């Protein structure tokens, strides 16, 4: 494993894109890198559709809209009412500019007609700590990261972003149930490879990923993390990337969010 962090995830993705397409170099392709930050940077060193080959979706999960325990609201409806009475007074923390939590908040603001200030952090730990302390009032974060804090009573769960309730937090309503019709956000990660991979090699890698996801131990571990197994064909994963990329391009354009 060769970790290549930084550059809003572009450094690692670029290493995959420029590698030899022989099946020996593959990478992780999360929603942030493949469908969100591409619309927030001036120029990527690669073309996602031209230079990368989707292999298989590994996991799908939801974001959780969490509130500080010190916040003056306990439900999504109360949050919306408070935000409309106090425009610009609430702050929404995220792990970074261009993160799924950032754009989830921008979509929420657009769909609810609210004015909430985005506060980006350098990682989720600092954002969650400030949420617990009450220095910020809101945060959209992946369920696997924030569910332990919900269960410990350190933050208040308002809603999950999926079309269905999360298996790890079945008592928490979806945003659609809580009063925001049509709101749906999924966080996903898959395996990618460089473009030009021979079909036989691609099919072999895809079969291996699907087999791993189907293992009982894998399913159990994903459930503990608040995620669900993905699977499917390379074409299924490519279609998901295209669909979510179009969705987030629209959100980013309306919000004006950029990464310098």
Description:
It is a single chain. The chain is α+β, with helices and mostly antiparallel strands. The protein has two domains: 7-60 and 187-255, 3-Layer(aba) Sandwich (D-Maltodextrin-Binding Protein, domain 2), CATH 3.40.190; 62-178, D-Maltodextrin-Binding Protein, domain 2. It has helices at 10-17, 31-36, 48-51, 76-85, 100-112, 124-133, 143-151, 175-178, 199-214, 216-224, 234-255; strands spanning 27-30, 52-67, 91-94, 117-120, 138-142, 156-160, 186-194, 227-229. Strands 1, 2, 3, 4, 5, 6, 7 and 8 form an eight-stranded mixed sheet that branches. Helix 5 (100-112) links the parallel strand 3 and strand 4.
List the keywords.
single chain, 260 residues, alpha+beta, D-Maltodextrin-Binding Protein, domain 2, eight-stranded mixed β-sheet, 11 helices, 19% strand
Mean pLDDT: 92
**Could you tell me how far the N terminus lies from the C terminus, measured between alpha carbons in angstroms?**
28 Å
Helical amount: 40-55%
Strand content: 15-25%
Indicate the CATH architecture of the largest domain.
3-Layer(aba) Sandwich
CATH topology call of the largest domain? D-Maltodextrin-Binding Protein, domain 2
Fourth-level CATH superfamily of the largest domain: Bordetella uptake gene, domain 1
Order of helices and strands: HEHHEHEHEHEHEHEHHEH
**Broad structural category:** alpha+beta
What oligomeric arrangement do these chains adopt?
single chain
Largest sheet: 8 strands, mixed
């Amino acid at each position: 494993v060769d970790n290549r962090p930084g550059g809003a995830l572009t450094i690692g993705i670029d290493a995959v894109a420029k590698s030899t397409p022989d099946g020996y170099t593959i990478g992780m392709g999360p929603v942030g890198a493949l469908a969100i930050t591409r619309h927030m940077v001036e120029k990527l060193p690669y073309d996602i559709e031209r230079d990368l080959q989707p292999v298989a979706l590994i996991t799908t999960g939801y974001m959780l809209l969490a509130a500080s325990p010190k916040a003056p609201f306990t439900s999504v409806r109360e949050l919306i009412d408070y935000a409309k009475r106090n425009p610009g007074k609430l702050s929404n923390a995220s792990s970074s500019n261009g993160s799924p939590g950032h754009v989830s908040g921008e979509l929420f603001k657009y769909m609810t007609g609210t004015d909430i200030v985005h506060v980006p952090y350098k990682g989720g730990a600092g954002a969650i700590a400030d949420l617990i302390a009450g220095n910020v009032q809101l945060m959209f974060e992946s369920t696997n990261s924030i569910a332990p804090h919900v269960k410990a009573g350190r933050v208040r769960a308002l809603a999950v972003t999926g079309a269905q309730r999360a298996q790890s937090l079945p008592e928490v309503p979806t945003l659609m149930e809580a009063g925001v019709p049509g709101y749906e956000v999924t966080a996903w990660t898959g395996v990618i490879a460089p473009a030009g991979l021979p079909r036989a090699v691609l099919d072999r890698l895809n079969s291996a990923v699907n087999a791993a996801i189907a293992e009982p131990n894998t399913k159990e571990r994903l459930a503990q993390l608040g995620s669900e197994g993905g699977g499917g064909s390379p074409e299924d994963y490519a279609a998901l990337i295209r669909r979510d990329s179009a969705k987030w391009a629209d959100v980013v354009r309306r919000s004006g969010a950029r990464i310098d």
